[in-house]
Amino acid sequence: MTFPDPSDQRPMRERMLAGDLYLADDPQIAADSERAMSLSHRVNTLDPNDGATRRELLTELLGAFGEGSEIRPPFRCDLGYRTTIGARVFVNFNLVCLDVAPVTIGDDVLIGPNVQLLTPTHPVEPGPRRDKWEAAQPITIGDNVWLGGGVTVCPGVTIGENTVVGAGSVVTRDLPANVVAVGNPARVLRHIGAEDAQGPEGTDGAAAGGEPA
User: Fold this and answer.
1) What CA–CA distance (Å, rounded) separates 52 from 40?
2) What is the pTM of this model?
3) Active-site residue identified among 122, 178, 205, 207
4) Is beta strand 164-165 parallel, antiparallel or unpaired with respect to 146-147?
5) For residues 116 and 129, what is the distance between their CA atoms, to the nearest angstrom?
6) Alpha carbons 138 and 154: distance in angstroms, whole number
7) Is 39 helix (H, G, I), strand (E, B) or coil?
């Protein structure tokens, strides 16, 4: 992370959108944040049986919210419009999505409770960090990924399609498609094969084997 050039006169929101270092103490960023807080508050305090209104609010809040997708409140985000969610996605309770950089979630994704998707970064150098400079790196979750409960995905990570991440894992680096990954930091445990096909009991092979959950 390079300390910002003092000759760079771009507005802080423009710098944020470009993925460069910026100061969050900016009226444009504050207005975006207040919008997200207001809409997410309405989502989180709505009658849980009022699915139609919840979908309307989430469609307004997010950059995209695909057909057949569901987010169970409470849901927290920084900006909202930087998060896009595909079709038929299920998000369980208490997703924290710090979407200063883009968060892209594909189709048919399953997200367990208490998952954190964290794009913000801060300087390691103490001086710029004390001066409140920050940045962010995008997160991409591929189609048909399953994130178990309590998973944390760190800035800049891409998770390939069909991959399963075990409960409580911390994903610090990219994960390829079609693998099972667990741990802190998350490491590939094995590739997903034909033996993982859903059995006659309707139980997924990986979950039944006691790996991810």
Assistant:
1) 15
2) 0.89
3) 122
4) parallel
5) 22
6) 9
7) helix
**DSSP string covering 134-162, please?**
EEE--EEE-TT-EEPTT-EE-TT-EE-TT
Structure tokens at 158: 């891409």
Contacts of 49 (CB under 8 A, 6+ apart): none
Q: Strand, coil or helix: what is 181?
A: strand
Q: How far apart are CA 151 and CA 103, in angstroms?
A: 15
41 is catalytic: no
Residue keyed to tokens 């975006």: 32
In 3D space, the residue among 52, 56, 87, 49 whose CA is nearest the CA of residue 69 turns out to be 87
CB of 205 closer than 8 Å to CB of 164: no
- The SS3 assignment for 79 reads coil
Instruction: Write the pLDDT tens digit of every residue in 105-144.
Output: 999 999 999 999 999 999 999 999 999 999 999 999 999 9
- Of 57, 116, 60, 56, the residue nearest 92 (C-alpha): 116
What sign for the dihedral angle of Cα 187, 120, 58, 54? positive
Q: Is 46 helix (H, G, I), strand (E, B) or coil?
A: coil
- Please write the tens of the pLDDT for every residue from 39-94: 999 999 999 999 999 999 999 999 999 999 999 999 999 999 999 999 999 999 99
Token readout for 3 is 């300390």
Q: How many CB atoms lie within 10 A of CB 149?
A: 17
Amino acid at 195: E
- In 3D, which of 181, 156, 178, 162 has the Cα closest to residue 170? 181
